[in-house]
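Here comes just one.
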Amino acid sequence: MNIRSKSIVVIVAKQQGLEIIKRSVKLFRSSNTLFCWQGKKLAEANVFFKERGIILHSFSSRIKNKILKQKNKSFAWLLNLWGGEIFAGSFLLKFRHSLNVHPSYLPFGRGRDPIVWGLIREDPLGFTFHEISPKIDSGRILYRKKIKIKFPTKGAEAYRAVIKNIPNEFAKFWRKTKNKKKIRLIKQNYTGNINKRRKLLESQLIDLSSNKKAKDIILKLLAFDFSDKFRLHIKYKKKKYQACLSLKETHE
């Protein structure tokens, strides 16, 4: 592989990244694009790229070192489609432009599990294409879109609502942007903390033995649960909802 013939490096990971590239692969030329897969390859990904005659490389140390040996700004674009790599500044200097796909409406929801945190904190939900920087999800914004989520939406429903919009929006953005010399960038001003998976797992357990307020609500939900005609009602933003609770013992 002659890496000097490439001007675009695309890193794809997981099913979500594959769905994005499925929608936009026709917008790339294999002659000047290096496609890499990060993490364990999906069989579906191997078939997809093979059918189109595209070589899919692993995003290995060998590939990284080849890129690092090139002059600064040797490449036009680095596109990170659902990869989890935290790129060093020395690596990013090799690219004139970069883009990461993040499933939150930045600057809200930096880091892991942004949709769960967004629902808990009532932050705006959506997705963002942003410039990659060594600090997680803090680069300047290229494009973002809000996804309206109404209470009471569950986490899985909100996740699907956000994710389903990304492949088409990325294809439209890339078609308009890939050949531009000047790109409008919006600086992020919000300085909130970066979400970490450890914090989410810690908050996943509510111990009713030490949390009286939570215990009272749970007991009330159970006590009022007779049928659709008689359940606990919850009022929120001038609307009333009938509430029921499902509890199942777990040994996790």
In short: The longest strand covers residues 95-102. Residues 205-252 form one domain. The chain has two domains: 3-195, 205-252.
